[in-house]
């Protein structure tokens, strides 16, 4: 097992709003590993929509995704892709 | 931006009459119109926008709380209405439970950060089980407003 960390710029024009947070948490929950999401030193459970919303992540911030567990590498890759693709919202 | 600024006292409804999603959204939009926060002519369009947002996925985020929201060009920044229901409102919430606290938010189309900030404040409040419980039990508008003010003082700053 290993820990994977990726820093990804949040470029989505509406930031990490409710639906985007929901997509992130939903994808994160498909993996067994632990998923943490951080902004500017504040880190929360990446599988919880509520936790993610408490970050108030606005466009332009850097998100730190870290995963730890058996499928951590696959998870971090998928979550990074979701953020880079602006949560599928164009 | 404080919770008490977003949810002005006149837009806090301690006991909503509605028991269904569309009804409660309409009731709270009407409150915003009556208080002058939103032009009455905008009411229908705003209800439609809020319901369209619900169709994309419920804003009933669990713990008896819903955060219906929409953009509207007639407001500056973010304004909100808070509805409380003792018996609960059917809201298709993620956890399947009726909602007792409805934090309805209306943001100007360019107020992206203010909207995220308002949502952050509401979710910080929501994650604090005590505040949630006290708000559900509050005796009236004054107590609800007091709790919002207390949350402003006690919740971690932005």
Brief account:
The complex is a heterodimer of chains A (90) and B (158). Chain A is 33% helix and 29% strand. By secondary structure, chain A is of the alpha+beta class.
The pLDDT mean of chain B sits at 94
Shape of chain B: globular
Please give the alpha-carbon distance between the first and last residues of chain A. 34 Å
Q: How many strand elements of chain A?
A: 4
What is the molecular shape of chain A? globular
CATH superfamily of chain A: HPr-like
User: Spans of chain A of 5+ residues with little confidence (pLDDT < 50)?
Assistant: none
Structural class of chain A: alpha+beta
Describe the strand arrangement of the main beta sheet of chain A, using strand numbers.
1-4-2-3
Question: How is the main sheet of chain A built?
Answer: 4 strands, antiparallel
Low-pLDDT runs of chain B: none
Global structural class of chain B? alpha/beta
Helix content of chain B: 40-55%
Q: Report the mean per-residue pLDDT of chain A as an integer.
A: 95
Helical region count of chain B? 6
Structure commentary:
The complex is a heterodimer of chains A (90) and B (158). Chain A is α+β, with helices and mostly antiparallel strands and 90 residues long. Helix content of chain A is 33%, strand content 29%. Chain A has helices at residues 18-29, 49-53, 72-84, and strands at residues 2-9, 34-39, 42-45, 62-69. Chain A has a four-stranded antiparallel beta sheet with strand order 1-4-2-3, covered by helices on one side. In chain A, helix 1 packs antiparallel against helix 3 (72-84). The relative contact order of chain A is 0.32. The model of chain A has no long low-confidence stretch (mean pLDDT 95). Chain B has 158 residues and is an alpha/beta fold. Chain B contains six helices and six strands; from the N terminus they run H-E-H-H-E-E-E-E-E-H-H-H. In chain B, strands 1, 2, 3, 4, 5 and 6 form a six-stranded mixed beta sheet that branches. In chain B, helix 2 (21-34) runs antiparallel to helix 3. Chain B is globular, with a radius of gyration of 14 Å. The chains are: A alpha+beta (90), B alpha/beta (158). The interface between A and B is medium-sized, with 18 and 21 residues.
């Amino acid at each position: 097992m290993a820990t994977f960390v990726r820093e990804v710029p949040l470029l989505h024009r509406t930031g990490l709003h409710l639906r985007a947070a929901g997509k992130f948490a939903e994808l994160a929950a498909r993996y067994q590993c632990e998923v943490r999401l951080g902004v500017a030193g504040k880190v929360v459970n990446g599988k919880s929509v509520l936790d993610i919303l408490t970050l108030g992540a606005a466009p332009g911030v850097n998100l730190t995704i870290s995963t730890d567990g058996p499928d951590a590498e696959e998870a971090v890759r998928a979550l990074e892709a979701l953020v880079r693709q602006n949560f599928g919202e164009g | 931006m404080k919770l008490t600024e977003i949810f002005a006292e006149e837009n806090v409804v301690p006991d909503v009459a509605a028991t269904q999603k569309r009804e409660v959204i309409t009731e709270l939009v009407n409150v915003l119109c009556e208080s002058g926060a939103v032009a009455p002519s905008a009411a229908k369009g705003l209800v439609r926008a809020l319901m369209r947002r619900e169709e994309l996925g419920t804003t009933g985020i669990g713990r008896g709380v819903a955060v219906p929201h929409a953009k509207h060009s007639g407001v500056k920044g973010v304004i909100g209405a808070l509805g409380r229901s003792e018996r609960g409102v059917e809201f298709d919430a993620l956890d399947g439970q009726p909602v007792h606290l409805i934090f309805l938010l209306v943001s100007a189309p360019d107020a992206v950060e203010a909207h995220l900030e308002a949502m952050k404040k509401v979710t910080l409040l929501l994650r604090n089980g005590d505040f949630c419980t006290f708000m559900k039990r509050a005796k009236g508008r004054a107590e609800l407003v007091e709790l919002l003010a207390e949350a402003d003082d006690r919740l971690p700053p932005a």
